[in-house]
Design brief:
Elements (H helix, E strand, L loop, with lengths): L2 E3 L2 E3 L2 E3 L3 H10 L7 E5 L4 H12 L3 E4 L6 H11 L3 E4 L4 H5 L26 E6 L9 E5 H15 L6 E4 L6 H13 L2 E4 L5 H11 L3 E4 L1 H11 L10 E4 L6 H9 L5 E6 L4 E5 L11 E2 L4 E5 L11 E7 L6 E3 L12 E9 L5 E6 L4 E3 L2 E3 L1 H8 L5 E11 L3 E10 L6 H11 L8 E4 L16 H7 L2
Parallel strand pairs: 4-5, 4-6, 9-10, 9-11, 11-12, 12-13, 24-25
Antiparallel strand pairs: 1-10, 2-3, 7-8, 8-18, 13-14, 14-15, 16-17, 17-19, 19-20, 21-22, 23-24
Helix pairs in contact: 1-2, 5-6, 7-8
Length: 461
């Protein structure tokens, strides 16, 4: 099951047919501009219309992840400052907020709908960071940041009303919200799926005439498998991937089907997308910044490095957030640069390459080890289907690398694997401990959760 959502022109925007009615319903529920509305809805036409309505009406959306346990939801609700909530009955938000609303079967009569996106410093969204390195934080995204990010990303990617976009990301994350909200600017038809199902999406590609999709690497891998060697649909022109590094083998498999993925890089603090490749550009790297945004690599003292230097990536521009709830250090500095925590390089043309997280570097006996490089080596073992490496504290070495591994079929013996490691990785780079598992720990959006590796490895001992 999926829905084909076609917007109609409304002033400078494109809105779904039920968006005005959804805004009338929100206002009848007592919500006004500036109020915060908790959101816990699975993808559906009503959810998409309500999301557009809230943003246009100045009502601040605060989405909550479906996969969080009730205690985590309750902790987030305690700091979210909600005036109301709208959620499916089985969503944990419905239990954390007793007066939770559910969308009606039909919307009431239309309300007056703004014909342009709100701007200014008042919040439009409050979203939770993905939690890849620990506890999630609430990010305040002002209306001016969202308006700029939507227009700039559409311009950068060349999106318009002739496009048909695949919507299969959860709406409780900024990337999923973006597929619905970019429709306001681009006017594309949205093919919305209730969840990610590789077989169902594979069947829908051609009939729907999908021209663009945004996927995390795990989803892309499953769709490549579902294609079973058949070329990508002829209409597909833009295949975006983000949320984690793109394995070279997966990129090669995609290219063999006729379309090389365009890598992107972004973060919640910038309304998602900061950089993106475009079709026909070079394969390595995350592309160039969207219009209005700047990216630099900084040294340890916060000074921009010369072109090609490796350091902490920082971003600056109108799509930046306005702060965290509750207040947390680490916002933009006096010059407007926000340090992302990612390591990378920027060349003279502005091309960005992301190398990993600054805090993911494993320092073993004074030697700095990149876990992504270790994972790439481990993936060369014929029995390894996937690997995730992190540092674990060690009394002698400070840190040592450890690994979670998913087997292709039957894992090798510990002795055989240790012997293979000795022949393929230098001493400090070899995982000292490892554990074979059915699947790797992931965040709600499917990003590798490296912070969980050490505990998971030791739990299996």
């Amino acid at each position: 099951m999926s829905w084909s959502l076609t917007p109609r022109r409304h002033g400078a925007l494109w809105t779904l047919p039920g968006t005005a009615g959804a805004l009338a319903w929100l206002r009848a529920a007592g919500l006004r501009a500036g109020d915060r509305l908790g959101l816990g809805l699975a993808p559906s036409p009503a959810a998409a219309e309500l999301i557009q309505a809230a943003v246009l009406g100045g009502i601040v959306l605060v989405p909550f992840h479906q996969r969080l346990d009730p205690a985590a939801i309750a902790a987030q609700v305690a700091v979210a400052g909600l005036a109301g909530a709208c959620a499916d009955p089985d969503h944990p938000l419905a239990r954390a907020w007793p007066a939770c609303l559910a969308p009606p079967a039909t919307w009431p009569a239309d309300a007056d709908l703004p014909t342009a996106l709100p701007t200014g410093e008042r919040a439009a969204l409050v979203v939770w960071t993905s939690g890849t390195t620990g506890s999630a934080r609430a990010v305040r995204l002002p209306a001016r940041a969202l308006a700029h990010a939507l227009a700039a990303s559409c311009a950068h990617l060349g999106l318009g009303a002739r496009d048909v976009w695949l919507g299969c990301l959860p709406l409780d994350h900024i990337a999923g919200l973006g597929t619905v909200l970019r429709q306001l600017v681009a006017g594309y038809r949205l093919e919305l799926h209730p969840r990610f199902d590789a077989a169902a999406i594979d069947e829908a590609w051609e009939p729907a005439g999908i021209t663009g999709a945004s996927l995390v690497p795990t989803q892309l891998h499953r769709l490549v498998a579902a294609r079973a060697g058949r070329p990508w649909p002829a209409a597909l022109r833009l295949l975006l991937t983000g949320g984690g590094p793109l394995d070279p083998a997966l990129a090669t498999a995609c290219a063999a089907l006729g379309r090389t993925p365009c890598q992107t890089w972004g973060l919640s603090e910038c309304c998602a997308m900061v950089t993106a490749q475009r079709p026909g550009q070079r394969d390595q790297g995350a592309g160039t910044p969207i219009p209005g945004m700047a990216v630099a690599a900084l040294d340890g003292d916060g000074r921009p490095l010369p072109a090609g230097g490796s350091g902490q990536l920082a971003v600056r521009g109108p799509a930046l957030f306005s702060g965290y709830d509750p207040p947390h250090p680490g916002g933009p500095d006096a010059d407007g640069w926000y340090r992302t925590g990612d390591r990378g390089m920027v060349d003279a043309s502005g091309w960005v390459q992301v190398l990993g997280r600054c805090d993911e570097v494993v320092v073993c006996g004074g030697e700095k080890i990149d876990p992504l490089q270790v994972e790439a080596r481990l993936a060369a073992h014929p029995a390894v289907a996937a690997a995730l490496v992190a540092g674990a504290n060690d009394a002698e070495w400070g840190q040592v690398p450890v690994a979670l591994l998913v087997a292709q079929d039957v894992p090798p013996s510990e002795e055989d694997f240790a012997q293979w490691l000795a022949g393929h990785l230098p001493g400090p780079w070899r995982p000292r401990r490892w554990r074979w598992t059915v699947e790797l720990p992931l965040t709600a959006l499917g990003k590798p959760r490296r912070s969980a590796v050490a505990a998971a490895v030791d739990a299996g001992r």
